[in-house]
Input
Amino acid sequence: MKNNMMSTEQTALSGSVMIMIQNVYKQLRQSERAVADYIIQNPENVINSNISEVAKECSISEATVIRFCKTAGFAGFHDLKLSLARGASNTMDTPLIYENIKKEDSLDSAIEKMHANNMQALTGTFKCLNLDQLSEVSRAISKTRLIHIFGLGTSGLVAQYAEYRFVRIGLLARACTDSHQIALATALVQKDDVVLIVSQSGTTKDIVEQMDVLKKKEAITICITGYPNSPAAKLSKHILRNMVHEAPFASGGIPSLMAQLSVVDALLAGASLNDFDHSIRMIEETGEALKSKKY
Output
């Protein structure tokens, strides 16, 4: 089967399912890539086929199809089919196109591509948010005594933003943006405390090492990440996934940053709606406190 997915300069993706596949494509075994390529080229066929038929088309075993589904972030083959079907019937599910910058690009072309990729990161993330899970996590955030927020590097900027936004609606929050702060905060975490982990790759060693401790302490861990099968995600109680295809010039850049920030804003909206009047009052009071800082 010809590999068309990762070799093209411009990859057309029919919705968030295809972004999920693309994000794990490089991690797949050759046999699993056969499944990915078949889905990319024949999404409607997959919707109308059973697992045996897909395995036969790809010349692989049914076990390989299941393994691919789980690696890509689906519960199984049935979950993959449902996700594809939802995308096909969703009028908002327009193709998502990501373009890499090439050596021969003009400056205006390169800037246009980067802008388009930024917007697609927001669109893809919005489409993949699980509202039931978001609602459950927002309730936990509203009730906790203190929201611990861990993030390093670019994700540290998101952690600081989250702290500011939660404090503005009257929730106590603390961002930890270096490894020593994270270690100290982890030592003080209590049972049922909320710990919001921001890690696009989910592989940051200084964070993953602390998550074993958080799990033993029975903290409510929430991971904002682009990779649901990453070490950090697997150790988290809740996963809030964003959809970003990180091309070389986008790695750690605006697309992942915007996607993470949009998830934080979604959490803020959920927490605010849990006690809307209180949230509005806190925004007004904290706004008054900041007036003296402006001319």
Summary: The CA atoms of residues 17 and 83 lie 7 Å apart. The chain has two domains: 10-89, 131-291.
